[in-house]
Amino acid sequence: MAAFAIAIIVAGVAFVVATAVSGGRFSFVELLLVSVVIGFALLALGVIRQARHAQPATCAECGGVISPNAPTCKHCGEPLH
To answer: Confidence class of residue 60 from pLDDT cuts 50, 70 and 90?
Structure first.
């Protein structure tokens, strides 16, 4: 899933840059829009990278799926740390 999302982002940025460059000269607005698209692409890539590391944990008491940073289990209330 992450590889597919990265491919879509790269293809989108390549398309925007190719479209902007095809005109010959950059106007200020085109340069601004390309910069914004590239900024959002970098932000999306960072979110994808962080999401790869966020894995849910399971409660040892009830087996419920919980956040690894949660102080207590949201299902049974058992302290986790």
So the answer is: confident
Confidence of residue 1 (pLDDT cuts 50, 70, 90): low
Task: Name every residue whose Cβ is closer than 8 Å to that of residue 23 and which is 6 or more positions away in sequence.
Answer: 30
Question: For residue 68, which amino acid is it?
Answer: P
| C-alpha atoms less than 13 angstroms from C-alpha of 20 in its C-beta half-sphere | 19
Q: Are 80 and 71 in contact (CB under 8 A)?
A: yes
63 close to 76: Cβ distance less than 8 angstroms: no
Residue 9 CA to residue 15 CA, distance in Å, equals 10
